[in-house]
């Protein structure tokens, strides 16, 4: 599990790349679950939460940049 501080230290491009990678992993994990090959069910939860953390950081950055442009 990755901490939010680790995500905040990365650039927006790095976060988007990692988000894409995690979404691919999430798809593969779902596929493994459907075929009965999933070994680590806890990984599904970790990936889902890491995706949410990245989206939160990206949203915070978008909001802060839009308020800076307005003010």
Automatic annotation (TrEMBL):
A Pfam family reported for this protein in Swiss-Prot or TrEMBL: Ribosomal_L29
HAMAP family: Ribosomal_uL29 (MF_00374)
Protein name in the entry: Large ribosomal subunit protein uL29
Transmembrane segments: none
NCBIfam families in alphabetical order: L29
Family matches, as SUPFAM superfamilies: Ribosomal protein L29 (L29p)
KW Ribonucleoprotein (keyword) present: yes
Taxonomic superkingdom: Bacteria
Family matches, as CDD domains: Ribosomal_L29_HIP
Family according to the record: Belongs to the universal ribosomal protein uL29 family.
Record keywords, A-Z: Ribonucleoprotein, Ribosomal protein
GO terms for cellular component: ribosome
